[in-house]
Amino acid sequence: MGAWGEGIEESDTVLDVIEIFVEQLRSSQCAAAATAKVREEFIHLFAEAEADADAVAHVRIGLALVQWRYGALETTLLDMVRSDLAARNGIDNYSDPARREQVLRAFVAKLAKPNPKPQAYPKPRKASLRPPKPRLAAFESGDCLALQLPSGAYRAALVLARDRCSDIEEFNVIARLDWQGSQPPPPDVFASPRPLRIAMHPWGPYRGPARVAVVGRIAVDPALFGIEKMPDYWSWQFVRVGEGRRPMSWIGWEELAGLLP
User: Fold this and answer.
1) How many other C-beta atoms are found inside a 10 Å radius of the C-beta of residue 50?
2) Is 130 exposed, middle or buried (0-12, 13-18, 19+ CB in 10 A)?
3) Which of 29, 66, 74, 111 is the most buried (most CB within 10 A)?
4) Residue 75's CB: how many other CB atoms inside 10 A?
5) Of 177, 140, 136, 146, residue with least CA distance to 159
6) What is the dihedral of CA 37, 14, 64, 69, to 10 degrees?
7) 3-state SS record for the chain
8) Cα torsion for 160, 164, 168, 170, to the nearest 10°?
9) How far apart are CA 34 and CA 18, in angstroms?
10) What is the per-residue pLDDT across 155-201, written as a single tens digit (0 to 9) for each?
11) In what order do the strands lie in the sheet with 244-247?
12) How far is the C-alpha of 20 from the C-alpha of 87, rounded, in Å?
């Protein structure tokens, strides 16, 4: 879950829920089917022995909002949002909890009244006769990367996995290593890697300010880096942090090269 403000839709999770719901609604023309699709996509959050109450609250908020927009809000779901509010789930982890609570109370009050102008269901997409072009990941699992910065200095990264995020889209899991030098990284940097940051990198060729070269390839076991792939789930979605699990983030080329924090 990533949030950049106290607003209802200033949350990656809420926006993901809305997108999944609308796309399923577009294809099925059924709000119940769209709701079931959202719950299926986020079932891992609810299935954990110790569920992340804040993350679950964001899923419920997003689902309640999009249901209300289309005039299909479930009263039981609204009751769950009220319960999360009373328990302060999705509030105290904000930089301004008072503002977040105020926003949520206004949100619940708004949803308590039927939507006077529900949106029409989105029209189904026309079937395309041309198959979509695959979007492939840039690197293979185990690729050793040398990143030359505009300053001429080198940094190192190691590709931990290549996986799919859909039938046609791939991504890499990449670890930026605790190393820098004036020459490309030697093999021992990758033989005993010390990761600074591990994140998912989207499909597509390299685009960025650093020059990237594959300088070798080794066998890698993602489990040794604390990465666990969820069963029956499409992506390397979790990295262990202490005794819990937290969703992995996406990383851009500038962040990978260490040019951004």
Assistant:
1) 8
2) exposed
3) 66
4) 8
5) 140
6) -90
7) CCECCCCCCCEHHHHHHHHHHHHHHHHHCCHHHHHHHHHHHCHHHHHCCCCCHHHHHHHHHHHHHHHHHCCCCCHHHHHHHHHHHHHCCCCCCCCCHHHHHHHHHHHHHHHCCCCCCCCCCCCCCCCCCCCCCCECCCCCCCEEEEEECCCCCEEEEEEEEEEECCCCEEEEEEEEEEEEECCCCCHHHHHCCCEEEEEEEECCCCCCCCEEEEEEECCCCHHHHCEECCCCCCCCCEEEECCEEEECCECCHHHHCCCCC
8) -20
9) 10
10) 999 999 888 777 788 888 888 899 999 999 999 999 999 988 887 77
11) 227-228, 238-241, 244-247
12) 27
Q: Which two tokens stand for residue 163?
A: 């996986």
Tokens found for residue 83: 């319960």
Q: How many C-beta atoms lie closer than 10 Å to residue 57's C-beta?
A: 25
Check: CB of residue 147 under 8 Å from CB of residue 215.
no
Amino acid found at 66? V
CA distance 32 to 34: 5
**Residue 163, φ and ψ in degrees, nearest 5:** -145, 180
pLDDT tens digit sequence for 95-137: 899 999 999 999 999 999 999 999 999 998 877 667 778 888 8
Distance, in Å, from the CA atom of 13 to the CA atom of 88, rounded to the nearest integer, reads 17
